């Protein structure tokens, strides 16, 4: 791990972030980071427990003179999104994140950085370890599996915590204080089809869509970024309609909460169409690149002729319905909020598409701050995919977090922010899925707020966190802890 990271200010936070990033911590595989956190708490001599689903809770008594303040829950999630560039040789299951400093940013070498939510975790660790920071009684809650289902927050039972205030350290704009968030639901469409033999006199191609920015399917969904699965389907649709292209395999995207950056398809066409296919498809590629020139300047779409033909392909009838359903399925912003300026209310991310060996799977994450709107879009997707013969399932549904503009802790944060920065913070609701809404189901009386430093490109290999913003955020956290209301 680079010493330049550990020497950044505040050193206590960056050293804990470096320690944490040395531990592999993919969602659903948090055993090592859970053990790491349990050992950390016990070494400090603090009350440290692991609940039945794997969340870690570390309790620290109030510092001297702060015993009459309300108990605060400091909360962040332990898991991180694992994404890497295709040309990056890296094993997330065994290697720690390789970080470096780039001017005002900390980045990772070809992978996600884990600032989401590692900076929050490191903040809490630094506070727990300190003997100098003034604070009320603290219950540090480290949840698991936030990125792929929020099962940690869902599994936290009532009665585990006594705190009256919860500070969730998991947002990505340092001038924002979040008081609400979107809920979400996974929409999965699956079908089987009978493959057919490759016709004689066929030519095989590999089509690759790459170089897209990707990003967080909640926080970045409104930015007009390219979705590799939708771009690929546009190519396949045109190739099928104009040249009888047939699909052998597709692999596009990876995680439901990441806007897909790459897609690869194995296809065939009749040899007689070869020259015309290459020419016409290049025109379509040029059109797509022109459309996305501003938001996706590094987009690449490559057609490579293959010497070996695939064994089997999707039959024309099945493919007819597939490419049309993919075209019709909504991706991106569905509705903007009528109550908050510039807030996405409802959206969908067509996150992962797999086709081959007689099976197809389309995986989406639908988000909304309004439950009925969430289900309206989920049902629209369901209807689209059922019309092509898919079996559609809903899973992993989690609630949004309803804003409370009269929050007592909100008044504390807004006052401190304005005093420290000379201007007001933006009090907002966000389109990401924060754990506050879920935690509130078992702790309905807990006063919750969410904030964090500036992070860019979360859930993608261009993820980075601002060094100066972390310094600003750290100062903010410390003064908040000093000004927690009395019991």
UniProtKB/TrEMBL annotation:
It comes from the Bacteria. Residues 208-293 form the Peptidase M20 dimerisation domain. Keywords: Hydrolase. CDD domains: M20_pepD. The keyword Hydrolase applies. PANTHER family: CYTOSOL NON-SPECIFIC DIPEPTIDASE. This is Aminoacyl-histidine dipeptidase.
